[in-house]
Design brief:
heterotrimer; A mainly alpha (about 325); B alpha/beta (about 325); C alpha/beta (about 500); A: about 325 residues; mainly alpha; ABC transporter involved in vitamin B12 uptake, BtuC; two-stranded antiparallel ribbon; 14 helices; 2 strands; about 0% strand; globular; C: about 500 residues; alpha/beta; 6-stranded mixed sheet; 17 helices; about 25% strand; binds adenosine-5'-triphosphate; binds magnesium ion
Amino acid sequence: MRKSTLDKKYIITLLIENAVTVFLVGFVIFMVFTKRSFSTWDNIVNIINESSIYGIAACAMTVVVISGEFDLSSSSIFGWSTVIFVICINAMGIVPAFFITLVCGAAFGALNGLLIAKVKMPAFVATLGTMIAIKGLAYVMTKAQPINTNNATLKAIGSFNMGGISIIPIVYLGVLVLFIWFMRYTKFGRDIYATGGNYEVARLSGINVVFSKFIVFTMLGAAAALAGMMYGVRIKAGWAPYGQDLALYCITATIIGGTSLLGGTGSVGKTVIGVLVLAVLFNALTLLGVSGSMQKFIRGLVLITVIMLDAVVAKRQKE
Amino acid sequence: MKKACAIVLMLVLLVSVVSAGGQKEAGGAKKIFMSSAYYTAPYGAPLQEAVREKAKELGYTVQIVDGEQNADKQLSQFKAAVADGYDALIYWPGDQASTPPIVEYLNSTGKPWVALNTVVDASVLDQVPCMIASDEVEIGRWLGRLMIQYFEKNPSATKNVVYIEGSPGSSYTENLTIGVNEVIKGTDINIMNDRQFAEYDPSRAMAIMEDMLTKYGDKIELAVAQDGGMFQGAYSAIEAAGYVGKLGLLCQGQDLIVRDKLVAGELFASVAQDPFTEGSLAVEMLDKIIRGEKVENWFATPTGPIFKADIDNYRWF
Amino acid sequence: MSAYVLEMKGITKTFPGVVALDDVTLSVEKGTVHALIGENGAGKSTLMKILNGVYTATKGELFLEGQPLHLQGVRDAQEKGISTIFQEFNLINALSVAENIFLGRFEGKGQIKWNRINRKARELLEKLGFNFDVSKPVGKLSTAEKQLVEIAKALSYDAKIIVMDEPTSSLTKKEIELFFPIIEKLRKGGITVIYISHKLDEIFHICDRVSIMRDGKLVGESLVSEITRERIIELMVGRSMEMEYPARTASPGEPVLEVKNLTREPLLHDISFTLHKGEILGIAGLVGAGRTELAETIFGAAVADSGSIEINGKAVSIRSTMDGKANSIGMVTEDRKETGLVLDMSVTRNITVTKLDEVTTGIVLSKQKEGEVASEYVQKLNIKTPSINQTLYNLSGGNQQKVVLSKWLFSNVEILILDEPTRGIDVGAKYEIYCLMNELTEQGKSIIMISSELPEVLSMSDRILVMHKGMIKGELTGAKMTADNVMQLAID
Ligand SMILES: Nc1ncnc2c1ncn2[C@@H]1O[C@H](COP(=O)(O)OP(=O)(O)OP(=O)(O)O)[C@@H](O)[C@H]1O
Ligand SMILES: [Mg+2]
C-alpha cells in the first residue's frame, strides 16, 4: 500500500477527467486569438447575461439528476411563470407577482415530486404529463395570447446594470452558491446523493428517500419559476411557449458538466462549466459567422463528444 | 476504441468549427446580420434564401442565425453581432409581445435595421425604421373570400367547412382568423370545428383531419388550412380515407406541394404569401436605409389568390 | 515442457495510490484444486483479474502450458481456456439457461439452431451430474443453480482453468455439500481449479495446494496435507491466533425488544420472541426460512400485517426505516452491493450516512468531524483503503463488508440486527468483529445475528432461535446449542 508517484500517466488521466474544462479553456484561447470581438468586455458581459437565465434552472436540474431522476416539465413551468408573472405584475405590482410566481412554480414542482416520490410514477411519464398539462393551463389562462407589461419597477430592475452586468447574473450567482452549499454542506444534500446513488441502500440506511425525491422536484419548480421571472425582467413579456427548450438545455448542460444521468454523482459546480460551454460555444459560433444549421450540427457534436469522453474516463477509473 | 472515437470526434469538432468560421470576411463588404425566429420553418428557408441572394446582389455579406423563437436568445445574438461590428441588422421576431426590449435595443445601437414578417408590438411599431410584413388580416380575408367563391361554384345548402389553424397566440394565426371571420360573418358558411391548432406541424394537421373525417365523414364540404405544410398533412388524411375529389380544399402558401395540387386540380386555390419577395424587399429597404434614403415605415408584401391558371406568375419553393 | 498448467511470474499491479500486487509468482499444477487465501485486500481478486483479462499487469509475465500468454480481454481469456466464476454472476436473468451458456456463440447461419444448442447445454449439465430444464430463464434459478450454469458455460469453452472467487459465500450449507462433488468431477476431468475462499474448512476439504497472500505479496505455499490450519492463519494474519472465536464477555439483562405475534403474509407467521439487554440472539435456519424478512420487518424496511413490537415495555409503531432508526434499531443487510453500500460514494460518506446529525454543526456538515469518524472506523476495523475518500468500488469485497458494519456501528443504535455480518471477511478480521460485538453488548446494546455459518452462531450467541418456513420452530439455550440440534430444527 505505497503511494505511487505523480507520473505522466497520472497527468494524462487528470487532463482526460477534466476534458470539458480543458476544452473550454482551449476553445476560449482559440477564440481570443482568432476573433478580437470575442474578448471585448461587451461580449463577455453578453455571454454572462445570456447564460444566467437558464443557468438558474440548470442548477436545480443538476440536483434532480443527482437524485437519479430528471424533469421534462420545467420548460412548461418556466413558460407558465413568464405568463403568471406578467399577469400579476399588471394586476397587483411586482412584489406580490414575485411571490405568487415562486409559490406556483414550487407547487408544480411539488406535484411532480408527489407523483414520482410518493405515487412512484416513472419521472419520464409523470413530467411528460405535467409538462403538457401546465402548458395547457398557461394557454387557457391567456387565451394563448402573449402578453407584455409596461411596469415601471420592472423596467427599472431590468435596466439595473453594473459595468454591463444586469441583475440576472447576480441572482444566478446567488442561486448557484445556495445550491452548491446545500448539496455539499447540508444533510439534505447528502441524503439526495445517497438516494440517487442507490435508492435501496439509502432507504435501508433510514434516510427519508421519499422526502429527498420530493424536495428536489419542488426546488426545481421554484428555480424554473425564478428563471421564468428573470426572462420576464429581460423581455418584459409572458407567453406559454417561452422556454420550450429549457428542460433539454438544462439536462444537456448537466451532462456536459459531468454529472451522470444515472444519479448519485456529479455536482452543481460542474454544471456551471456545462452552462458556460454551451454559452461560449453559442456566442462563438455566431461571432465566427457560422450559419444557424451548422450551429445545430456542432452543438450536437459537442454533446456526443463529451459523452464519449465520459465513457473513456469511466473506463479508466475502473482500471 | 472509445478513446480513439472521442479523439476523432474532437478533431471533427475542431475542424468544423474552424472551417465553418473560416468562410467569412469577404474583403471590405458591409456585413448584414439576421436573427430569424423561424429559421427551420418551411417558410423560413426560402425567405432566408432570398435575403442571401439579394444581399449578394447588392454587395453585402450576410450571416443568418436561428433565434429559435426565443426572444432572449435573439437579444443575445444581436448583442454579439454588434460587438462583432456588423453594419446592419435584420430582425425576424418570434412573437409580438416580446419585441419591445429588442426594438429598443436595436434602436440604441444606432445601426440601420429592419424588422421582417412578424409585426412587432403596437407600442413600438412606430420606432421600427421599416417593418416588412404581409398584411396578415388581408391574407385571412382572402381565405374567407375564396371560401365564398368556392361555394358559389359548388352550391350547397350546408356549406360545412373544416378550418385548421397554426399556433394559438401567434399573431399570424390570430390575424388570419380575424380576416377570415370578418369576411364570412353574415354568410351561411358553417365552420364545423371549434378552433383546432396543428402548430404548423403536418403530422398534427393529419391527425386533426383524420378525427374530423371520422366524426363528420362526407358532411365535410371544404377543408381549409392556414399554410401549405398543414395542408399537406390534411391532404394525406383525406387521401387515406379516400375522400380526394369529394371535398374542396383551400390553403395559403407557395410551396411545391401546393403547386402540385393546384396543377392536379385538387386544390381550389391558394393565397399568395411570397417569402421570396419578402426576403428581398427586406434587404432592399435595409440598403436604402444604409444609403440614407427615406423609406416607408411599413411595407406590405403583396398578397392575393392563386388559381391553377396563375401558377406561372409565382415563384414556388 | 513445464509441469505447470499455469505460471504467473513476478506480477505487480498498481492502482493510483495503491500497490495491489507486489512481485507475485504463482505456479499451478494441472488437474489440481489450488487454493488462494489471504486477508481482505491482500490482492487475491486482483491477481485473478489479471489472469482472466480484466486487468493487465503493470509488470510480470503469464505462461499457459509453458507458452507465453497475452490476453486482450475476458472473452479472449475464455477462448484460451481460462474462465472465471465471479461472485456476481455474469448471467442475463431474462434469457434461458442454454442461451446464457452459448450467448454470443449461437450456431447456425442466420437462423439459430435451437435444438442443437439446447441439446449441447443439456449434455454439459449432465457431465456435471445435473439434469434440469435448459429452457428455463436463469432468473428463476437458485443461486446454486446459477453457479452450475456458470460452470457449464466455462466447460463449453473447453476451459483448462476455472477460477472461483468465493464461490460458496452465498450458498446454503446444503448447496455447498452438493457443490463439492462438482469440483471433484472437474478435477477428475483434468480441469484445474483456482479456489479463493475465506472458509478454511473448505480448503482442507477439497484443495490440493494452497497459496497464501498478505499485503499484495505471496507469503507461503504448501501442499494442503502438509500444513495446519493454525499455520495458514498465522501466515495470513501475520501473527498467531489461538482461537477463532472470543469468549462472550457480557451477560443478558432485562428485555429490550419484545416481538409478539408478528405476521407478514406469506413470509412470516405468528412470530414472538424477546431480546434482552446486552444479549446476542442468534437466528439460524436455511435460506428462505424468513430470517431476512423478519429482520426487515423489525427494522421497518417492510411492514407487518399484524402483531406488535414493544421496546423497553412500550408499544411502538414501525412502518418505515426512519421509524426503525428513530427507535434506535439498525440493520446490516446481507447483500452489501445491492442494499448495503452506495458504491459510487466514498468510504467516509458511506460510514456517516446513517447518522449525519452526529457530524453536523448547526445545519452545516463538518467535513472535519466526518473525516475523524471515518478514520476512527478505518483504524478500528482495519479497513484497507488508500484513503477515506476512496470510492467503495475500488475496495476489496471484505473491506466493503467492513464499511457496511462501520456504518451501523457509527449510528450507535441500541438494537443492531446483523444479517450475515462476516460474509467474505477473513479470519483475522472476523475475530476483530466478534470482539466488537462483545464490546457493544458490554455497553448494554443488544444484537440479533442472522448467520448461515453454524460455528459462528454457536460460538457467539447467548441464545439461538431456529426459523423454518416463516415460523420460529425452536429456541436453543445453554448446552442445547449444538450443531445437531440446530440442523434438526432447521430441516423439515
Ligand atoms: N480498481 C481499483 N482501484 C484502486 N484500488 C483497487 C482497485 N481494485 C482493487 N484495489 C485495491 O487493491 C487491493 C487488493 O484488492 P483485492 O480485491 O484483490 O483483494 P482481495 O484479496 O480479493 O480481498 P477480499 O478478500 O476482501 O475480497 C485492495 O487494497 C483494494 O483496495
Ligand atoms: Mg476479493
